[in-house]
Amino acid sequence: MTPAELLLRRYAVQGLVAEAGRIALDYFSRKESLGVTMKGAQDWLTVADGAVEDFLRARLAALFPGDTVIGEEGGGDPSNAVWIIDPIDGTANFARGDRNWCISVGFLLDYKPTIGIVAAPALDELYVAQRGQGATLNGQKIAVSGTDDIRRASIELGWSARTPPQRYLELIGRANAAGCSIKRSGSGTLGLCNVANGRTDAYAEPHINAWDVAAAIVIVDEAGGWVNDFFAGDGISKGNPILCCTPALASQLSDITGIA
Questions:
Q1: How far apart are CA 178 and CA 161, in angstroms?
Q2: Do residues 56 and 86 lie in contact, with contact meaning Cβ atoms separated by under 8 Å?
Q3: Which of 113, 141, 169 is the last residue of a domain?
Q4: pLDDT surpasses 70 at 228
Q5: Active site residue 26
Q6: What is the pTM of this model?
Q7: Domain extent at residue 18
Q8: 89 catalytic, yes or no?
Q9: How many CB atoms sit inside 10 A of residue 55's CB?
Q10: Domain edge (last residue) among 141, 173, 203
Q11: Which residues pair with 44 in a beta bridge?
């Protein structure tokens, strides 16, 4: 794929994600329209999830018919040129009226994260990154914090029902014993983005799905962060652990989390 073809994808999808954000924000402002259901324990679904994913799938198919699409709600197949969509990341927040949610669209070229676009419309934030081109928030370049003392680190630890609760509690205990300040905000995608913009120093989760991180991995990487090899093995279809952080903390946090 030529540089011009990649640039076209980045700018086109940046516009699509902004439009999808307006669709989602309209649902968010009308709680009675959400049609909330549960896919499982603490696994929320709203009408907005389907509407946003359907919109993005249709537009991507029209613009780039040779690319494939994987979405949280509709599934899909990987290929050498694949878009990975999370229509609403942080759906529990979204359904409860919490503004910490986003739309995430990542593009993998030859199975490498290459373009990442994340819109958090209720926060009025748009993250954009392309491999080798840097990362921005609302058009301004961003960078990781540079923190090098674990005792001053603010980290987010994501939780997943797919891993035993005891494993998560042990992770909190080890991070706390190392001196970290710990938080959880309910959106893995924005958790990674907050590392990229320096609001936190690290994000870790024992298991997370590809649609939660495909876009944000590019954003963190282009902001100068360190990210584990999430797409190793079956990461694209089955998920993997995720650890991203400011580089000076990578070794210590890998030991604490057990994620390399």
A1: 25
A2: no
A3: 141
A4: yes
A5: no
A6: 0.92
A7: 3-141
A8: yes
A9: 16
A10: 141
A11: 38
